[in-house]
C-alpha cells in the first residue's frame, strides 16, 4: 500500500464518532459572520445596518486578489457591521444578522435531486467557484479559485483529492464519503474538468475500509476517478506528503504543488464545489465533528457558518463535562485550542474536540538527549532539535539556511519527543522571525 | 659541516629579509588608519553592548561618535549624562543634555492571577504567544507574562511581578530600551524619570472601544477623555480609544489620576499618605463606576499551541 517516504508518526486514531450520521443543526437567533474566514485579506462588507438578507446572499465581497466572497448563512436583518472576537479572542470585522425565518435565495436549488451533468467551461467553473466563495476546507482555507487558476507556463497533470483524514478524532470527511459519495464524485469530476487533467486520485487511508469500498463502487460510474488506498500514517493529508504518497513525486523546498504538476484539494472542498456549481449554493455550511473521549455521545453535524461554539455544544452534548481541559478546533495534532466559546465558527472549521484535563495537559519539559527522534519523524526531512537551539539563540539567518520555512507545522516532532520539548512552537516562532527578517530586507 | 650550517643560515636569513620587505610593503599599502580617539571613547563607554543606542555594541557607538565628531542623535542611555560629558570632552564638542529616562510597563495586573480566563501551557515566549491568541488575561493588547522583557534586560532591572506583569526596578534601569523592543505588544515605553522620580502615565494600551475594553479588564483605559479635559497642560491626547500622556508636557499634578473612572492612570514615586486627603472626596464618585465592572467568568480553557 502506498504512503509518503519520509518521516511521519502514527498517533492514536480515536475515530470514535465514525458511526454518528450527519445531523442538521437548527439555526440560532443571531448569527455573526466574520469577514476573514479565509487565508488573505478580509472581505469588504457590502450590506449595511437594517438591510434584509436572504440565505446565500453576498454580504462580503472579495476586493483584493487573495480574498474570498462571504455569503449570509441565514435570512433576516443586518443588526450591525462591527467587529467580533474570534475563537482566539482577537477582534475581527464581522456582520451581525438577526435571524428571521429561513428564506433562501431563489437561485439556489434546494431539491434533493442529484445533478450529474455540468455544461460549464473550465473558466466558467473557476469563476463560479470564486463567486460562491469556495475555499479549501482542509484547514488552510486557501481561496479555491486561485488554486484552480493555473499560472501560465505551468501545467497540471494530477488532481489529488485528500480524503486521508489523518488527524486523530476527525470524522467529518468520512461521513461525507459515506453519505454523499455520489455528490463528491461529481464534485471531483467538475474539478477535473476545470483543470483539464485526465485522472483524479482520491487518497483514502486504509483505516476507513467502508469508505474505500463505497467510493470505489461509486467511482466506477465516473470517468477518470481513481481511489487510492493509503497506509495509515500522519501527516498523510498534508499537501506535499499526499503528492509523494500518490504520485511518488517530490515538491522541492519553497516550491508549490503546481511546480510538480499537482493540484491537491480536500474532500470537503469537492463536496462544496458540487453544491456551488450544480446547486448554486454558496459555502454557508460546515460539517463539524463534535467528539471527545469524555463525552457520552459523539456527533457529526451540519451547521451554518457563524453558529457559535457554545450553540453547537449546547445542541449536541448539552454542556461541557466538568473535567474539560481544552476545547480544540481541529484535530489533536494541528488543531488550535478555542479560548472564546462565544466565537462564531468559520469556513474550514472541522471539529469541536473536547479533551479532558489529563489528556490535554502538556507534560513537563526536560532536556534534549539528542536521540534524533524528531528528525526521523519530520516528514519534511528537517532537523527540529537544531531549530530549537537556533531559535533559542535567535540565530535567524542560520535557521533560514536550514530551511525552517519548509516546516509544515504538523507537530510530528513534538509528538515524538521523549523530552516533551515544544519543538513545533519553537519552530513556529523561528518561522515568524525569518519572515519578519525577509520582510525587513525587502 | 660548517659550510652546511653557513648555507642554511644564509638561505634562512635571505628568506627572512625578503618576507620582512614583503610584509612591510603590504602593511604600508593596506594600512587601516584608525582614529585613536575611537579607542579612547570606547574606553569611556560602559561596555555592556546592550544595543540600546541602536548600534551594534559599544565599539560601533564609539566609531559613530568619532566619525560625526559630535553627539548629535547619539546617546548612551546606560551611561547617561556622565558618559556623555566625558565623550564630549574627548571630542571637544557640546553635550546634549538629556532627561534621564526609565522603562514603564503600561499594563495593569487587574486581570491576572486568579482572574485569568485561560491557562497557557505552550512555549514560554511572549513573541510566540502573541501569534497564537490574546493571552491568559483575555486582553488582546495586554501583557502576556512570559517574560521576554526580563530575558532581554542586561541590567537585571526588570522582573516578573506577583501578578504576572513585569515590574521595573527604576534604580537599576538604564533606559536602554531592550525590553521595549522585546515586547511584542509594545507595552513598555521609555518615559522621563521626572522630578524627584515622580511620574504619571496611562497604564494601558487597549485600543478596544470603551464597553469592550471594560469587559476585558476592570482597569482598562476606555478612552472617555475625562483626563484630557482636566489636564491643565494639554498633555493628554486620546487616540484610538486610549489616552496618552506626553511626558514632556506633564507636570505630574495628578488631576487625571483622580479623574480616571477605571483607575487606568498610575502615579509613581509620590509620598502616598501626605497627599491623599485632598483627592479622596473627588475619588468617591468615580470609584463605584469602576466597581460595577464585573469580569465574566468564562470557561477555563487551555491553549494547546
Q: How does the SSE layout of this entry go?
A:
The complex is a heterodimer of chains A (442) and B (305).
Chain A (H helix, E strand, L loop, with lengths): L21 E3 L5 E5 L9 E2 L6 E2 L4 E4 L8 E2 L4 E10 L5 E9 L22 H10 L12 H4 L10 E6 L8 H8 L1 H15 L4 E6 L3 H11 L5 E6 L8 H9 L14 E5 H13 L5 E7 L7 E6 L4 H8 L7 E6 L6 E2 L13 E6 H4 L12 H5 L6 H9 L3 H6 L10 H5 L6 H19 L1
Parallel strand pairs in A: 1-14, 9-10, 9-12, 10-11, 13-17
Antiparallel strand pairs in A: 2-8, 3-5, 4-7, 5-6, 7-8, 13-14, 15-16, 15-17
Chain B lengths: L1 H28 L6 H9 L13 H11 L11 H12 L9 E5 L12 E3 L5 H7 L15 H5 L5 E3 L5 E3 L9 H5 L5 E5 L6 E4 L7 H7 L9 H5 L5 E4 L2 E4 L9 H5 L5 E4 L3 H4 L4 H13 L8 E3 L2
Parallel strand pairs in B: 2-10
Antiparallel strand pairs in B: 1-5, 3-4, 6-9, 7-8
Helix pairs in contact in B: 2-3, 2-4
What this model shows, in words?
The complex is a heterodimer of chains A (442) and B (305). Chain A has helices at residues 122-131, 144-147, 172-179, 181-195, 209-219, 239-247, 267-279, 309-316, 357-360, 373-377, 384-392, 396-401, 412-416, 423-441, and strands at residues 22-24, 30-34, 44-45, 52-53, 58-61, 70-71, 76-85, 91-99, 158-163, 200-205, 225-230, 262-266, 285-291, 299-304, 324-329, 336-337, 351-356. Chain A has a six-stranded mixed sheet with strand order 1-14-13-17-15-16. In chain A, strands 2-8-7-4 form a four-stranded antiparallel sheet, with no helix packed on it. Chain A is 29% helix and 20% strand. The longest helix of chain A is centred in the last third of the chain and has 19 residues, at 423-441. Chain A folds into three domains: 25-103 and 284-359, no CATH class; 122-279, Rossmann fold; 373-441, no CATH class. Chain A is of the alpha/beta class. Chain B is of the alpha+beta class and 305 residues long. Chain B has helices spanning 2-29, 36-44, 58-68, 80-91, 126-132, 148-152, 178-182, 210-216, 226-230, 255-259, 272-275, 280-292; strands spanning 101-105, 118-120, 158-160, 166-168, 188-192, 199-202, 236-239, 242-245, 265-268, 301-303. In chain B, a hairpin with a 5-residue loop joins strand 3 and strand 4. Helices cover 36% and strands 12% of the residues of chain B. Chain B has twelve helices and ten strands. Chain B folds into three domains: 36-91, 3-methyladenine DNA Glycosylase II, Chain A, domain 3 (Orthogonal Bundle), CATH 1.10.15; 100-193, Alpha-Beta Plaits (2-Layer Sandwich), CATH 3.30.70; 195-290, Alpha-Beta Plaits. Classes of the chains: A alpha/beta (442), B alpha+beta (305). The A-B interface holds A 88-91, 320, 324-328, 335-341, 360-362, 422, 424-426, 428-429, 432-433 and B 117-118, 121-123, 125, 127-128, 131-135, 138, 140, 208, 212, 298-299, 301-305.
